[in-house]
Amino acid sequence: MIYTDMIEIEKLRKADIFSGTAIFCLGVFAVYQAFQMPMKDSYAGVQNVWYVSPALFPLLIGSTLALLGLMLIRTALKEVGVQGVKAVFGYLSSTAFADFLKQPVTIRFYGIVLNLFIFVFLLIPNIDFFLAAILFLLLFFFMFYCGFDERLVGLISKIIGGTFILALYLISDLADKVDTFAYFSADILVIAYIFLLIWHYYQLVKESELIPKFKLSLLIGFLAPFTIGIIFKYFLLVPMPHEGLVVSLLDAIWYAEIWS
């Protein structure tokens, strides 16, 4: 039992080398981004001092992450030594590692990272917040709550395909040209993708025991973003990260003269 525990601890320490490296890199990136913010600035003729700079918080967080990452790497290297690091790199180049990358649990990890990456870096900056949140939640529900492991690879491939089309549309001149005569064209594209995704997944689960979970996923996927978004937007007066088609429609309803 003690020997088994020691083996498990050694495995965790080897993994800590890579976890610590990732944390350190994340911290360095946060510090780099913080230095892009002004440390001093003037507003309405008033000179702001450095200790009220918006860069201080990300600097603190980034520096702390970088330091903790280095400490984690140091602890791991102290436990496993150079030979342990060599063994890890040997495992990474082996067929066992290639098999590990194909396991269902690893594929689920791909799905989580991919969904988060798309939500943060593609949807939030460019797509109406309500639509971005709905798509984000539905993808998570379809992957894990009412999904099949054997269908996960196919769903991920469809996500990648849709992401590629949307990214290509946004970075090209096509989006600007279409917006001249059809406002919120990117939002409309995402709406079409959401309904195609729902229709496709319904075809997969309509004759299975997963249909109640599918309906619950739709309910929460649409209700949660609208509930939270409306509270923040219209009661707490917090602007959405990107306000597009849905926010414009809600503004028209919320501020309509019939309520006055």
What does this protein structure show overall?
The protein has 10 helices and 2 strands, in the order H-E-E-H-H-H-H-H-H-H-H-H. With 260 residues, the chain is mainly alpha-helical. It folds into 2 domains: 2-97; 104-259, no CATH class. Strand 1 and strand 2 (46-48) form a beta hairpin. Helix 4 packs antiparallel against helix 5 (129-145), helix 5 packs antiparallel against helix 6 (149-171) and helix 5 (129-145) runs parallel beside helix 8 (185-205). The radius of gyration is 24 Å and the shape is globular.
Show the helix and strand layout.
Blueprint: H1 2-34, E1 41-43, E2 46-48, H2 56-92, H3 95-101, H4 104-126, H5 129-145, H6 149-171, H7 174-179, H8 185-205, H9 211-235, H10 245-254
Antiparallel strand pairs: 1-2
Helix pairs in contact: 1-2, 4-5, 4-6, 5-6, 5-8, 5-9, 6-8
Termini separation (Å)? Answer: 73 Å
Q: Structural class from helices and strands?
A: mainly alpha
Low-confidence stretches: 1-7
Oligomeric organization of the protein chains: single chain
Q: Largest beta sheet, briefly?
A: 2 strands, antiparallel
Mean pLDDT figure: 82
**β-sheet strand percentage:** under 5%
Radius of gyration based on Cα positions: 24 Å
Taking strands numbered 1, 2, ... along the chain, how are they ordered across the largest sheet? 1-2
**How many runs of DSSP E, i.e. beta strands?**
2
N-to-C order of helices and strands: HEEHHHHHHHHH
* Share in helix: over 70%
Number of helical regions: 10
Number of domains in the coordinates?
2
